Amino acid sequence: MDCPNCGTWNPDDKHVCWRCQTDLPIPEPKKERRNLKLFGLPVWAWVVVAILLLFPMLSQCAGPLLGQ
Ligand SMILES: [Zn+2]
Prior knowledge:
Blueprint: E1 37-38, E2 41-42, H1 43-67
Antiparallel strand pairs: 1-2
The structure holds zinc ion (ZN).
The site of zinc ion has 8 residues, from loops.
């Protein structure tokens, strides 16, 4: 970010300007991550459930092929 005092660029992890020692404003972390929820469960949980359900089916389908 740029120093509000001298305009010098500072790395994001710096809290004080390396040039003029001015305290840098702390950048607000954007917590705009939408927690999409489906029937009370986050979407990733449904993905896990889907994989767990699909895996036995896929392994059954692939079983005869792999058995040859
Ligand atoms: Zn500065």
